[in-house]
Design brief:
Strand content: 5-15%
Order of helices and strands: HHEEEEEEEHHHHHHHHHHHHHHHHHHH
Number of strands: 7
Shape: globular
Helix content: 55-70%
Distance between the termini: 36 Å
C-alpha cells in the first residue's frame, strides 16, 4: 500500500531513508512509517491505524452514470474494527461498457472517510468500473447492488488489469458452482462462464500465459467452502467437477489446439529446462489445459484418450512441474485408465530413486487421488516401507494430504474421521507437534459442517481429549 500511495519513486525514497536511519538497528513498524512519511513530506498518521486494526476491512461500492452530463459517480464506503476510518488506497479504472476499451486508466482514490463519492467526468458512454486493481489494499470488496454476473464476465474477459481479471473470473466461477451445488437454475450463470472461458482462451491481447492460466482455473474446493455457511465437501466437489466437465466438453477442440501449440513451443526449446517467465507461463497454461482434457473421462474411449494424453505428458516431462501435473491426473484414473495409473505410480517411485522430497510428492499425490477407494489406498500407504510417523514431512505428505482431499475425508460414513483418530493416537506418541497441528487443521472446524459430520468430528476430538499434546 505504501507503494500505491507514494508511487514507486516515493516508496524508494522512503526505503533509502529507512536504511539510512536504521540499518543494523532494532526497529518498529512506527519507524518504517515515519521514514516513508518524512521522505515524502506526507502525513501518514491516518494510515497508521492499519497497524492497530484487526480483521479484514470491507469496502462496499455502488455507482451511477449521468448520460446527459457524461459523469460516472462511484460511491465507496468502508467498515472495519477501527473506531475511526482507515486510509484505504483504492485503484480504479473504467472500461467502456460497449467496447471494453479502457476509457479511464488506473487512478488511485484515497478513501479516508466512512463514505465518499468520486466523480469521473467527460465520458461519452456508460462504463464498467474495475475496482481494487492490482489488489491495491487488503480489503473485501462488496457490491451494494449484489453480484452482477454479466459485469463479472465483462471484467473477467476484458479487464486490462491482470489481478481483477483473475478475481472476476474466480467470483463468476464460484457463482456457477454454488448454483449447481444448490440445484438452482444456473443457465444464466453458466452462459457467462462459458463466454468468459472461451474469450480468455482465445484472447490474443493476453501476453502473459500465467495470467491466462490463472484466469482459466476454477477456484479450489477449500476456497469454495469459504463462500458457504454449512460446508458439504462431497457436494462442492461434485458441483465443481460438473462445471469443469461442461467447460471442457464445450471447448474441447480449442483446449486441445492450445495444448498442442504450447507443446510444440516447449519441444522447440529442446530438453533444456527454462525458468524464464515465458517458459513458466507456457508450462502453467499447458498443465491447466491438460487438467480440462483429462476431466473428460466418462466413457471407455474417453478414459483411454485421457490416460494416453496424461501418460505422454508424464513421460516427456523435462522437469518436476510437468511430471507432477500429469501424475496428479494419472493417480485418479480408473476404468480403462487403470493400467496407466498403476504404471505411472511404479515409474514415479522408481524415478525418485529414494529422494525424500520426490517421495513426499509420490505419497501426497496418491493420498489426494479422486478415487472411490482412496481411503483404503491411504491405509496401504501408511503401511509402505518408506512411510514413517517419525518423519514429519512424510507424515504430512500422507495424512494432511488426505485430510485436504475433502470429499474423501469428509465422506458421510465418517470413516475418514475414524482413520484420522487412529493415526493421531499413534502420531502423538512420536511427534506431538505434528499431531496437534493435524488435529487443529482437520477437526477443529467441526462447527462449519452439518450436524451428522459435526457429531462424528467432535467424537474424534473427544476421543483425543485426554491427550494433552493434541489438546494443545
Amino acid at each position: 500500500m505504501y507503494d500505491t500511495i507514494l508511487t514507486s519513486e516515493g516508496f524508494r525514497k522512503g526505503m533509502d531513508l529507512y536504511f539510512k536511519r536504521h540499518d543494523g538497528c532494532a526497529v518498529t513498524c512506527d519507524d518504517f512509517l515515519a521514514a516513508m512519511a518524512d521522505a515524502n513530506g506526507v502525513d501518514l498518521s491516518q494510515f497508521a491505524r492499519w497497524y492497530s486494526t484487526s480483521g479484514t476491512p470491507t469496502v462496499s461500492y455502488s455507482s451511477t452514470f449521468d448520460a446527459v452530463k457524461g459523469v460516472f459517480r462511484l460511491t465507496l464506503s468502508q467498515s472495519s474494527r477501527s473506531e475511526e476510518p482507515l486510509f484505504i488506497p483504492v485503484s480504479v479504472g473504467l472500461l467502456d461498457k460497449e467496447t471494453g476499451e479502457e476509457v479511464v486508466p488506473t487512478k488511485i482514490l484515497e478513501l479516508k472517510e466512512g463514505t465518499q463519492i468520486f466523480e469521473f467526468p467527460g465520458l461519452r458512454g456508460d462504463v464498467v468500473p474495475s475496482i481494487l486493481r492490482n489488489f491495491s489494499a487488503p480489503v473485501k470488496l462488496v457490491p451494494l447492488a449484489g453480484v452482477d454476473e454479466y459485469e463479472l464476465a465483462f471484467l473477467a474477459s476484458r479487464d486490462t488489469d491482470g489481478f481483477n481479471r483473475w478475481d472476476s473470473a474466480q467470483r463468476l466461477y464460484t457463482c456457477a458452482i454454488l448454483k449447481v451445488m444448490n440445484k438452482e437454475d444456473c443457465d444464466e450463470t453458466i452462459n457467462p462462464v462459458l463466454e468468459t472461458f472461451g474469450r480468455t482462451l482465445k484472447d490474443t491481447t493476453i501476453s502473459d500465459d500465467s495470467i491466462r492460466a490463472y484466469t482459466l482455473t476454477l477456484p479450489g474446493e477449500s476456497t469454495l467452502a469459504e463462500s458457504v455457511t454449512v460446508i458439504d465437501p462431497p457436494a462442492i466437489h461434485s458441483a465443481r467437477k460438473q462445471v469443469k466437465i461442461e467447460i471442457a466438453r464445450k471447448f474441447k477442440d480449442e483446449i486441445t489446439l492450445c495444448y498442442q501449440k504450447l507443446t510444440a513451443a516447449i519441444e522447440a526449446d529442446g530438453t533444456e529446462f527454462k525458468v524464464d517467465g515465458t517458459s513458466v507461463g507456457r508450462r502453467r497454461l499447458r498443465n491447466v489445459c491438460l487438467g480440462y482434457l483429462c476431466s473428460i473421462a466418462e466413457t471407455p474411449d474417453e478414459q483411454r484418450a485421457a490416460a494416453a494424453l496424461a501418460t505422454n505428458h508424464f513421460q516427456s516431462a523435462t522437469g518436476m512441474t510437468d511430471k507432477l501435473a500429469a501424475f496428479n491426473h494419472l493417480v485418479s484414473m480408473c476404468g480403462e485408465g487403470e493400467s496407466a495409473r498403476e504404471a505411472a505410480i511404479h515409474k514415479f517411485y522408481d524415478d525418485a530413486a529414494g529422494d525424500p522430497l520426490v517421495l513426499d510428492k509420490w505419497f501426497a499425490s496418491q493420498a489426494s487421488a479422486e478415487l472411490p477407494d482412496v481411503l483404503d489406498r491411504v491405509k496401504k500407504l501408511v503401511s509402505h516401507p518408506d512411510f514413517s510417523l517419525e518423519k514429519p514431512n512424510r507424515c504430512r505428505s500422507v495424512i494432511l494430504s488426505f485430510t485436504m482431499n475433502e470429499a474423501a475425508f469428509h465422506d458421510a460414513s465418517g470413516k475418514g474421521y475414524e482413520f484420522l483418530g487412529d493415526i493421531l493416537e499413534k502420531l502423538d506418541k512420536v511427534n506431538p507437534k505434528v499431531a496437534a497441528r493435524t488435529t487443529a487443521s482437520s477437526l477443529i472446524g467441526w462447527k462449519r459442517y452439518n450436524e451428522d459430520r459435526a457429531v462424528m468430528m467432535k467424537a474424534q476430538l473427544e476421543r483425543l481429549k485426554g491427550d494433552v499434546s493434541c489438546e494443545q
